[in-house]
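Onboarding guide, step 5: your first structure request.
Type a short instruction followed by the sequence, for example:

Predict the 3D structure of this protein.
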Amino acid sequence: MIPAPDCPLPPVDRLHKVVAMTTTQQNGTTQVPDFAPVLTRAAAAETTRDPSSVMTLLADSADTGGRLTSYRSTFAEGAVGAPAHLHTKASEMFFVIDGALQVLVGEEITVLEAGDFLVVPPHTPHAFAAAPGATADVLFVFTPGAGRFDYLRLLGRVMRGEADPQEMKDSSQRFDNHYVDSPV
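The system replies with structure tokens like these:
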């Protein structure tokens, strides 16, 4: 519920206390959230970089009771993005905020433009990169969450030459990120 204009919003540091007291009724049973609301301010969000993109880490599975992981990536023109891979447990959602993202899903290549939304179910090979001649600003959501922030940090280190690419292969089960041969 949004407070009436004459009712101030609670301060951010009290947000979790307000919600912790909130319950809902479902089938006569009281339901209490099993995690506190997650508020990530843009100015305070952690970022990780590689040579062609910036990833802003918003909410990881540990923050959301395992329900989701979300981050925002801005890709420079010509950014390579991610090679063909799949997830065995998580669905991956893409929402293009600005620009254009070229996506391979299964055997089909398509371009997502600002406002477009895509959900890739588990076990579906996919890849993505900034569309030719474009930049891309994309919100990613994985559900359920899978501790992906450590994966994104590792990816940044590998892309900058600070870590061995073998670490990516060795972490595939942990991060539910399995590289596959591209179907096209």
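Each response can be followed by summary notes, for example: The helical segments are 15-20, 148-159, 166-170, 172-175.
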